[in-house]
Amino acid sequence: DSRRGVEIPLGRAGATKHQRLALGHGTSQHVLVSGKTGSGKSTLFHAMIVNVALRYSPDEVQLYLIDFKKGVEFKPYATHALPHARVIAIESEREFGLSVLERLDEELKLRGDVFRGAGVQDVASYRDANPEARLPRILLIIDEFQELFVKEDRLAQEAGLLLDRLVRQGRAFGIHVILGSQTLAGAYSLARSTLGQMAIRIALQCSESDAHLILSEDNTAARLLNRPGEAIYNDANGVVEGNHPFQVVWLSDQQRSELLVRLKNWARGRQTVDPPTIIFEGNVAADQAQNSRLIEVSDKAPSSSDAAIVWLGAAVAIKEPTHVQLFRQSGANVLVVGQDQPMASGILATAAASLLYRQLTHDPTATDQFLVLNGLRNDEDQHDPWLRINQHLPVVLPVVGPQRATEELEKWYAELERRLEDPEEKFTPRYLLIHHLARFRELRRDEDDFGFSSFDEPEKAMSPSKMLGKILKEGPTLGMHTLVWCDSYNNVARCFDRQVLRDFDSRIVFQMSPNDSSNLMDSPAASRLGDHRAYLYSDDRGEVEKFRPYGT
Fold it and tell me: Which end of the chain, N or C, is more open, meaning fewer C-beta atoms within 10 Å of its C-beta?
């Protein structure tokens, strides 16, 4: 029963004694952990997580696990679906970490309202008065929490304020914060006043300067630690009198996996249905299978007034997946720019599959409402998402290469002209997808667009480039939307001038130069993007959202 607190075995404190982490008693509410690489900090966190899961049910304790390291320490808890975990973040982004803090801040306020309504002041009193109530204690564990403060920016300020509120007010509401770091030194960090509120300190092997920071100025015991897993537990804000040396319990990967399998099997027999665990894996592409709304929305019968939804990837925050809504309005086209072909293919293929599935559910002949211009060469078949899509669909999606692109584009343009003659008719949506724009030489701007033509030359037939420009400009209001991937901004500029570029209200940008990023989204931010990351920029609203694109 966690109503009075939580006790977690950590290791041996002697031949017969065991060291326990006690949370929820007096000032022992939050924990600060420090230890250099190889000191056993990860082993300590595994001991905390597994032992709390073995001792308490998810009704008693819930876990929010965030790892900012370039590793996968918390991956087993996602793989084995640890029932206690509400959030698991692996190789997390700062933005996602902030969203977790915001979620817990909302929980803090919600519990405050509940307690005031019940006339109580803490978890124990509330649960005594409401024995049937489900109000678990919450453990927030952040490894390498210093990553939240690597920059002195708005995000760091907000994270600092939220962590401070959780540390100062979490005690009464059953929310406990456990922060780990290799070092507490550095120009940017959590405010010392906040760290001072964390009475429990666990020091592993560390430098002399960190020994002072984790414990206190006159407590240098931590610098004498010389074995991995050797640690000092101190629940007296670091003063010497509070030192309790111990050895962290060793739990092998195999033992941990076996225990997690047992927990998973036990959880299947529970009567309580928990919401799905939110999993953020920053080291891999986003998974379409985790987007429950993709099928839910695709199953809904489309109407002429509905906005089609293009799913792009997983948000770098606790929110619904990143997406674009294609309303029947000017600019409702999508431009993807960047050299990462698997990411671009994942975005366009997911968009095509979800849009096509939605149409096919209600119209088996809907393939004529799609056209894919595929610029990949035959020797790139192993990277071709359209081959795989057509292998798994009950119908064949129309896909043509550069040789037939002009012929098919003329048909698409003829349909636009037909719709322009009767703009009041409720036309069926149509979607043009261009995969690798740079491979379509016919779609590059005409020479006269660059100022080389003579006014005396006779008028020529409309070029494929100008047909595409008119489709981009006039098509969206008539239900004809275009999605384009181009590998670089230079190649975008060869095909679209600044005016045509404005017909792409939604732009997805991968990592690129600061100058190219500024041309596409009025900010150099894309130059700092890492692997499996992209920005969605909305030109009409001037809004930017970071996300993890879907893989192929």
Answer: N
